[in-house]
Amino acid sequence: MDFSSFLTSLATSFILFLILILLFAWLSRIPANDVVYYPNRILHGLDPYDGLRRTRNPFAWIREALSSTEADIVRISGVDSAVYFVFLTTVLGILVLSGLFLLPVLLPVAATARSKIPANETTSQGSFNDLDKLSMAHIQEKSPRLWAFLIATYWVTFVSLYLLWKAYKHVSHLRAEALMSPQFKDEQFAIIVRDIPALSNDQSRKEQVDSYFKAIYGDLFYRSLIVTDNSKVNKIYQELEGYRKKLCRAEFVYAESSSSNPEGTKPTVKTGFLGLVGDKVDAIEYYNRKIKELISKLEAEQTLTLKDNQRAAAVIFFTNRVTAASASQSLLDTMVDSWTVSDAPEPRQIIWENLPKRYYEREIRQYVIYFVVFLTIFFYMIPIGFISALTTLDKLKKLLPFLKPIVNVPTIKTVLEAYLPQLALIIFLALLPGFLLFLSKAEGITSESHAQRAASGKYFYFTILNVFIGVTIGSTLFTALKTIEKSPNSAITLLATSLPESATFFLTFVALKFFVGYGLELSRIVPLIIFHLKKKYLCKTEAEIKEAWAPGDLGYATRIPNDMLIVTVVLCYSVIAPLIIPFGVAYFGLGWLSFIPQVLKVYVPSYESYGRAWPHLFIRIVASLILYQVTMFGYFALKKFYSAVFLIPLPILSIIFISVCNKKFYRFFQTTALDVASHPLKETPDLKTVFRSFVPPSLKCEKREEDELEYALSSSS
């Protein structure tokens, strides 16, 4: 890619961004689109425009973002959303402070150097020589000018560690404030106990658990909820809910027909496979009959499940949150595989089918999943390399000859050369997260938020190894693997050699992500089109329409690894090619501006973990920093700058920093500090309500009273 092509791709990205912003300014002011652009406010019972001025200014969202506070984010969207913005502002701060030194110092040092750039050190894979002159590649071997780049490596490291320390303290404060809130949360009065020993004598599981905790905690123990195998009852419950939705739809269709015809036209349905075959009957009568049958079947299965399908796990409830916090971090038994406890997640988060899994089964599952993830990461290199090879214009012309007249048009050719490989990579990566989330849940994890964090970690390592390192050395991937196999010490040198050559690819990649990505995020064109298509052709009832515009959450499992990829790319290139820093600043600055309105007006959190994702974010930022330090050491070695040995302390310092932060902060993110839990509540909680909030929906029944449920739970298995 030459310099003109790069500028063309950058200008195209910016124009697309402006078009999408103008669309956002126009579409978001149409009342029919309020449910797409303001769903969070609507679900909170607020007017979409309450406190906001109706304006045609396409950049009014920037003013709204700048006037919002962290307290607004916590109040409306929770601590997890606020922690995500701490991550964005921390990385933004690292890049801004780094750029204040690197740009005015390193660019003149590189530009004024007189050197012929070796072919293997160019920062572009084409004729982008102007970037080479502003990069470390322009510095001669053994040149004293390399001292400036070495000092810059130290500067980036110290700035990163300082801001990460401040951020860790701030997030700990956010978590503490939320957990000591006078407004109680149901999960603060409960813990999860797993690996309950086998029953002895004639005790029921309920009697075994109650007597055990009563002996330890006395009157502070309230009651227990034994985990059951709900697979059958869940299936019936889901079928029942499906028929209820169908009944609502049929009644709506009938009422709609009655408005034009007094007698109305009753909808019909076929009773056979998928409603496609069988006898045609009155839909409303048929659905009512099926609902009655399923309610009776559900109640019978509920009783059977509660009595005969009890498992070796339970939710334990206490009379106050201090006792619950203390119990969740206690060692109850002398053996690690018996009576293991942890704090309870929110009721909506619990993955019930994972609770009964035994200790050693969970351990084995974890190792098997790690091996599967390793295979996934390794073998995904093959299709990514294949796609990279296929998405060149020459290959496309050979595979699809009819495209030749189109791609030969100079303007189209320039745009395709700039964007085709990046678009192919982004689309390919979009297919992976669902599979990684499935693997994470298969480990035996108990909560949705933990599964999301685990999937996010797997996706992060995938993107680093397959996208960053894969793209960097992808042209000679298998040759590189053979080289590393023969000489493991050559891995650092290989990465350092290959890294500069991919600079222009990643410059374009980052530009595409922040201009087009954030433009699509704000304009919400795709959700808007999908909503209106569903509303016109599929939805009848209000419930169906609401389901069509339901916004979902931020999607941390994919969003954070994608952000971390940009962190890694920008850090690793920050000293080699400092021009990438403004692109990184634009990415995280625009991200911060774009997501504040989205969090306050669009996305609705599906869970709250009170900032538990932060330690994982912290570790990955420092891991990216270590990769940057090691790469710089290798690149200095290529330049035969033997003072590079002064960089050896940096990775060691970073590892020590991780250890210190983990010892100081991490435990509070695993459990709740008793000092935090001891703060007084605004009102005394109704423990019966707390208990019932943990009962799975499929085990609840309108006809079943609290005493009946307690009796069923207390019966022997």
From TrEMBL:
User: Where does the record place the CSC1/OSCA1-like N-terminal transmembrane domain?
Assistant: 5-166
Q: Which residues form a coiled coil?
A: none
Location within or outside the cell: Membrane
Kindly give the Pfam families that the UniProt entry links to this protein. Answer: PHM7_cyt, RSN1_7TM, RSN1_TM
Q: Which residues form the CSC1/OSCA1-like 7TM region domain?
A: 365-636
State which residue ranges cross the membrane: 6-27, 82-107, 146-165, 367-390, 419-439, 459-484, 504-531, 564-581, 617-635, 641-661
| Entry's Gene Ontology cellular component terms | plasma membrane
Membrane topology is: Multi-pass membrane protein
Q: What is its main location?
A: membrane
Which of UniProt's keywords are assigned here? Calcium, Ion channel, Ion transport, Membrane, Transmembrane, Transmembrane helix, Transport
| Sequence similarity | Belongs to the CSC1 (TC 1.A.17) family.
Under what name is this protein listed?
A: CSC1-like protein ERD4
Q: Which organism is it from?
A: Genlisea aurea
